[in-house]
Specification:
By secondary structure, the protein is of the alpha+beta class. Helices cover about 15% and strands about 30% of the residues. It is built from six helices and 25 strands.
Length: about 525
């Protein structure tokens, strides 16, 4: 009948409209959408950015800057921050939702005393607060211009900002003291802050473990700090040297937090304790995501990355004397892979991976001496850093030969380390014969005690040595290609970190870690080996 006919036509018309709307919405989402790839699973991921920053510094360390001079230094750095924020937040394929800047990135480090830092400090409000703290466009924060501007940048670009500042805390202004009041009548804390997309202060954290930092105070005990985000991820906060200590990191991990942020001015002790190697190892050991932002002055202070469960999604290490500024962006799973499978740790074996994580970069030898035209010689500072002394280490050196295999054993106290190796038949083809050493020295080195007067450690390492007489200092290059290797030890330390790099301290994801036997190995490495180590 006509009624039936009209009903069928009406149903077909409704179906057509529904299909048209659905198609139009899908097209609109693809064009405007989330600005991310893999749209169908974006709820399981977030986009993060970390910056390896070369800070503008106050160079006349013998004079205390005026307030205006200190502000001028900091605002130059914030100008650079804004450029990174613009790039990170405007990408059509990887639009960052959070960006992390390094420790001391607003003013630099290695200042001789507390007084010189005072003009750089701002009074950062305490949290929690009964109402949101939004310094942007609030005249009550005009006396804290850096905090105010960072708030406005987060709001303007709709991104969470994590930055490191100096917090001025007057002893008379609080009832619960974080530490005994200093003679100056105030504390000054090395502090990380987080600001949300509305410009509101999310968190502030005072660094717990200072690294020869005479210009900062330390709280009496670590205060674990975390913050929640609009995209459903909770982040824990640590600063630099905190990563080497039980607290506050274990407090945060015990809360089930699996996404961590580290702002750092990491002092590298190549070849083993470099920033990126430690970041990767920490992420793997704790099965977490780690967003780590470092300064990029030179090979002594470099190394940033974004990691998930030990896999470097993005990383950078500068093996030269010259400063380098980098922005790293990566798509990060909200839940690290191993935490999806099990909520309780168990022994893990990581199988050989087919390729290095990032191919060893090729650098000419001139990059390993300071350049007179480099900004570091005029407006930057290259810090003077001493490497660990060799007196604390036991070494078993050898000079490799093409095609050679060998086994080494060395002990210190109750720690016994063992290494095996097989040398390839050819040397590193990326370097010319004129640059290659005919007596390149390697060693199995053992430490069972105090590391450079900083902390107790156990280390077994197969490393490239600068010379037959010294093995615990920086050697950037390695010529001999190792076909395979193993390093193991009878560790008593509760946690074990695996550290591995090829020439120029570039990370490698081409090995097996067996936490049951405390062994790091690769049966098909086929790369120049700078170091392979296990540390506890």
């Amino acid at each position: 009948s006509d009624l039936v006919h009209r009903s069928i036509i009406l149903l077909l018309f409704i179906f057509f409209l529904t299909s048209l709307v659905t198609t139009t919405k899908a097209q609109h989402k693809n064009q405007q959408g989330l600005d991310h790839d893999d749209h169908d699973d974006d709820n399981d991921y977030y986009f993060a950015a970390v910056v390896e920053h070369v800070p503008v510094m106050w160079m006349n360390v013998s004079a205390i800057p005026t307030q205006n001079q200190a502000l001028h230094v900091m605002m130059q750095n914030v100008d650079i921050y804004e450029k990174h924020i613009v790039e990170a937040s405007s990408s059509t394929t990887q639009k960052a939702q959070i960006i992390v800047f390094p420790e001391d990135g607003l003013y630099g480090a290695d200042y001789p005393d507390k007084a010189i830092m005072v003009p750089f400090l701002e009074d950062i409000p305490d949290l929690p607060s009964p109402s949101p703290i939004i310094p942007c466009n609030d005249i009550s924060y005009d006396d804290r211009p850096v905090l105010q501007r960072l708030s406005c940048l987060a709001k303007k670009y709709n991104i969470i900002i994590v930055a490191n500042m100096g917090d001025f805390v007057n002893c008379s202004s609080i009832t619960t003291s974080p530490a005994p009041c200093p003679p100056e009548g105030h504390w000054q804390f090395n502090t990380d802050i987080a600001i949300d997309e509305e410009g509101a202060l999310l968190a502030k954290y005072h660094k717990s473990h200072l690294y020869y930092e005479m210009n900062w105070d330390a709280p009496d005990k670590p205060d674990p700090v975390s913050f929640n985000t609009s995209f459903g991820v909770t982040f824990g906060m640590i600063i630099c040297f905190d990563i080497m200590f039980e607290h506050p990191q274990e407090d945060l991990l015990s809360r089930g937090i699996t996404n961590m942020i580290q702002s750092t001015w990491w002092v590298n002790f190549p070849p083993t304790i470099t920033a990126t190697q430690m970041q990767q190892a920490w992420s793997r050991e704790h099965r977490t995501n780690l967003l780590a932002s470092n300064v990029g002055l030179n090979y002594y202070t470099s190394g940033s990355g974004i990691y998930t469960d030990g896999t470097a999604l993005a990383s950078f290490f500068n093996p030269t004397f010259n400063p380098s500024e980098r922005l790293l962006i990566a798509k990060v799973p909200k839940v690290p892979p191993h935490n999806l499978a099990s909520s309780s740790p168990s022994p893990v074996v990581y199988d050989d991976r087919p390729e290095p994580l990032s191919a060893p970069a090729t650098f000419v030898s001139s990059l390993f001496s300071p350049s007179s035209s480099s900004p570091s010689s005029s407006s930057r500072m290259i810090p003077s850093i001493s490497t660990p002394t060799t007196t604390e280490w036991v070494t078993s050196p050898f000079i490799p030969a093409p095609g050679e295999t060998g086994t080494l054993t060395a002990s210190q106290g109750n720690l016994t380390c063992k290494a095996t190796y097989a040398i390839g038949k050819e040397k590193n083809q990326q370097r010319t014969s004129n640059n290659m050493s005919n007596n390149e020295t390697y060693a199995l080195v053992v430490l069972n005690g105090n590391y450079n007067n900083l902390f107790d450690a156990q280390v077994c390492a197969l490393i490239r040595c600068p010379s037959p007489s010294t093995c615990v200092s920086f050697e950037p290059q390695a010529d001999y290609v190792f076909s395979s290797f193993t390093v193991s030890g009878n560790f008593s330390a509760p946690r074990i970190y695996d550290l591995l790099s090829t020439t120029y301290s570039q990370l490698v994801d081409k090995y097996k870690l067996d936490t049951r036997s405390n062994t790091i190995s690769s049966s098909s490495f086929n790369l120049p080996l700078l170091n392979a180590a296990i540390s506890g």
